[in-house]
Design brief:
Number of helices: 28
Structural class: alpha+beta
Strand order of the largest sheet: 1-2-5-4-3
Helix content: 40-55%
Number of domains: 5
Radius of gyration: 33 Å
CATH topology of the largest domain: Hypothetical protein af1432
CATH architecture of the largest domain: Orthogonal Bundle
CATH class of the largest domain: Mainly Alpha
CATH superfamily of the largest domain: Hypothetical protein af1432
Strand content: 5-15%
């Protein structure tokens, strides 16, 4: 038994010595002693504890420390924090003990790691909140996230010891958040290994097959690299450029991902390998210039493919990555990708944030990585941001592809692919986003939902009278824009509710009454609202006027609570049908209490669905039907004259629900208007003026045809209810030259 223990102790001692001896940043007196001190405390605290693999637990923090030091290039503080990262959660040591032994900085990192240790161990909202806490450390010490990435990498490397269901769970988590986070922090090698290991445990058979296929091609590829590189090597050496040339395979995960996305077999993945040229730069000559100089030498040997140049030296990626990528025609008639990097660029590509920090000086410009961290900090400062929403939006912004957009002054902003004009407005400043009404992209006027392309120059047009709407959330994709819009909408809702509550209390005081449950039981049915917040909100915005308040309160007719068919998320269709059956049995005259089509005062989706076949809007005569396949028991609303509604009434009367609109002034509904008339100069200016300025209606799109002096236009507009439509039709009909105006009930 003693020999086993001795063998283990020798392994542990060797691992500790390797950690200390390979620490390239242990150059201060006492650094190595501090690591030994942290090791001793961790070793004593974790004694008699073993991992699932059977190894002593201390082997894990030692391995994390080596990843942090050797693969990330971090220093003593991070190594010590790695050794201690499980100590507060798993042992009797407290944060105060860590502070006393190692100081506040290391204690704060260990505290951050302790708080996020169970990111994925409980229910989803708890997981999301913990991940949010992890990112909060960006505003304090980014090393918390780097140590956590190292911890996850070692756990993935030792995943064999866990049962299959846990392997699948941890692999999915890693692929969902940790690999993208490693990419965003610039750790390409770690990101690649996390992806490959995730694939290995999720699809072991596929992983093994791809691994074997790559091995079979390895020999021929090595011969090709040698042949391809020889003339390049000679040319660079002739110009006294110290360099290395090597070939690097695509990762197994990226090969599999390409096979999936392109629906092709392994044999048709032609860009399996890239040739990388890493050079030692000449002092006092810009690295960018040297990259292009090497590119020029290569294209003297091999014909380039101009459209395949990727210039990441002029505009680095958002994770700090810099390189010049090009594709050239190889000696055997096949296209070959080459990557040209300086030694500094190569280290940043492999070691990410740590190397970026190492090369940063006081005169350095703010990098894209700095800007990203700054954006995340701003995002986290939003107190109205739900944890699950944050997790979704943050995941969207761990994007692998970016576009570069120019301001009118020529400054560059980095955004995710598919970003819109509105995303760009919020990227410049929150107030610019809040007041945006449109933009000029490359000097051409476009709407807020216009999708931007890399290289666009954008000028945002603003108006102080404009205000964000709820439908803006479907336009933007960046977390910053979503957070700003949601925060303002919630703030507006809160202000409306507080204002309405105050107005109601003042009005009640005038008639010597105070707010009470009895008063509310009379007011809510009278004003057709489902709850107190909706009542206050509509009072606060002037939708509900309190002129008739005394008359309502004098009535004594309300003796029971009115049953509003407010169909909440999660309520089953069976329960609705049961209530419906009871209504049918007790009230054969069909005077059932209607389901009120209320307007939500926050950004949550409504409890009903508008039918696409007839597109009803508030004010239309409508009927409702329980959506058969809906698990949430939502009601789908049709116009009463809709042919589909008539069919349902005749064949599925048991699904029928009486419905009734309440006043809607916040939600916008899409309607289509057809106009025709006789041509005259300025008529279309008059039409748009009436729509946008006099009637304050937003235009989604216009389709115009003109022939032989007669014109026809189809317009899609956002309105609140039929009153808006009627005012619109009357306003347009009064314009000279307009012959007919009508609403088209089906909007595509």
């Amino acid at each position: 038994m003693s020999s086993v223990i001795t063998a283990e102790e020798i392994r542990i001692k060797d691992e500790l010595n390797a950690l200390i001896n390979n620490c390239t940043r242990c150059y201060r007196k006492g650094d190595k002693a501090l690591i030994r001190k942290a090791f001793k405390i961790a070793h004593d605290a974790h004694k008699d504890i073993r991992r699932k693999s059977g190894d002593p637990f201390i082997m894990h923090p030692l391995a994390v420390g080596r990843i942090v030091s050797e693969e990330m290039g971090l220093g003593v503080t991070s190594i010590v924090s790695s050794l201690l990262h499980d100590i507060v959660e798993d042992t009797d040591y407290t944060l105060e003990d860590i502070t006393n032994h190692f100081g506040e900085k290391i204690a704060s990192i260990v505290d951050g790691l302790t708080k996020i240790s169970g990111v994925f161990d409980k229910n989803s909202s708890f997981q999301a909140e913990n991940f949010r806490k992890m990112l909060l450390t960006l505003s304090d010490d980014v090393r918390v996230i780097l140590v956590k990435l190292a911890d996850r990498l070692h756990n993935m490397r030792t995943l064999d010891a866990l049962p299959t269901h846990k392997q699948l769970k941890i692999s999915a988590e890693t692929l969902y958040l940790y690999a993208p986070l490693a990419h965003r922090m610039g750790f390409y090698a770690i990101k690649t290994e996390l992806e490959d290991l995730s694939l290995k445990y999720r699809y072991p058979k596929i992983y093994r097959e791809l691994e074997e296929s790559i091995k079979l091609k390895a020999k021929s590829h090595q011969e090709f690299i040698k042949e391809f590189s020889k003339p390049i090597h000679e040319q660079l050496s002739k110009n006294n450029i110290r360099h290395e040339i090597n070939g690097r395979y695509k990762s197994i995960y990226s090969i599999w991902h390409k096979m999936q996305s392109k629906s092709i077999p392994f044999e048709e993945v032609y860009d399996l390998m890239a040739i990388r040229i890493v050079f030692d730069p000449i002092p006092d000559l810009p690295e960018k210039t040297q990259c292009w100089n090497i590119y020029s030498m290569i294209t003297d040997i091999y014909m380039p493919k101009p459209e395949r140049i990727r210039d990441w030296v002029s505009t680095p990626k958002a994770n700090g990555y810099e390189a010049l990528h090009a594709t050239v025609m190889g000696p055997k008639g096949n296209w070959v990708e080459i990557q040209i990097r300086s030694r500094r660029m190569d280290e940043i590509a492999e070691r990410g944030f740590a190397a970026h920090w190492k090369y940063k000086t006081e005169t350095s410009h703010e990098s894209e990585l700095d800007k990203w961290i700054k954006r995340i900090r701003e995002l986290l400062e939003s107190t109205n941001y739900d944890a699950l929403e944050f997790l979704d939006d943050f995941k969207l912004n761990l994007f692998a592809s970016e576009i570069f957009i120019f301001t009118p002054k020529g400054d560059i902003k980095t955004l995710p692919v598919n970003s819109t004009v509105l995303d760009f407005a919020y990227e410049i400043h929150t107030n610019i986003g809040h007041t945006a009404i449109g933009a000029k992209v490359n000097h051409k006027l476009v709407p807020l939902n216009h999708v931007l392309k890399s290289g666009d120059q954008v000028e945002i047009i603003t108006s102080e009278t404009f205000h964000p709407r709820r439908d803006w959330l479907s336009i933007v994709i960046t977390a910053k824009a979503k957070a700003a819009i949601k925060s303002l909408l919630k703030s507006d809702t809160k202000n409306r509710i507080e204002k309405g509550k105050r107005m109601l209390e003042e009005k009640l005081m005038e008639i010597k009454l105070r707010p009470s449950a009895r008063v509310m039981r009379k007011l809510m049915p009278a004003y057709e609202v489902a709850n107190k917040d909706e009542l206050y909100s509509k009072i606060g915005t002037g939708i509900i006027l309190l002129d008739n308040l005394p008359e309502i309160l004098k009535k004594n007719t309300i003796s029971k609570w009115v049953n509003y068919w407010s169909l909440q998320l999660g309520r089953s269709s069976e329960k609705i049908r049961k209530n419906q059956a009871e209504n049918n049995a007790s009230n054969r005259s069909d005077k059932r209490t209607p389901f009120l089509l209320t307007e939500n005062i926050d950004e949550s989706p409504p409890d009903y669905i508008i039918a696409k076949c007839c597109n009803p809007i508030p004010g239309d005569n409508v009927v409702g039907f329980i959506k058969e396949e809906s698990k949430t028991g939502k009601v789908i609303v049709h116009q009463s004259k809709c042919s589909e509604a008539i069919k349902l009434l005749s064949s599925h009367n048991e699904l029928y629900v009486p419905v009734k609109w309440t006043t809607h002034r916040f939600l916008s509904f899409l309607v289509q208007i057809k106009i025709s008339g006789i041509e005259r100069f300025g008529i279309f200016h008059d039409i748009t003026t009436v729509i946008t300025e006099e009637l304050n209606v937003n235009i989604r799109g216009i389709n115009l045809n003109s022939h032989d002096g007669i014109w026809e236009a189809s317009m899609e507009l956002y309105v609140h209810d039929t009153r808006d439509v009627n005012n619109l039709i009357m306003g347009l009909s009064r314009i000279k030259g307009v012959e007919s105006v009508e609403r088209v009930e089906t909007v595509q």
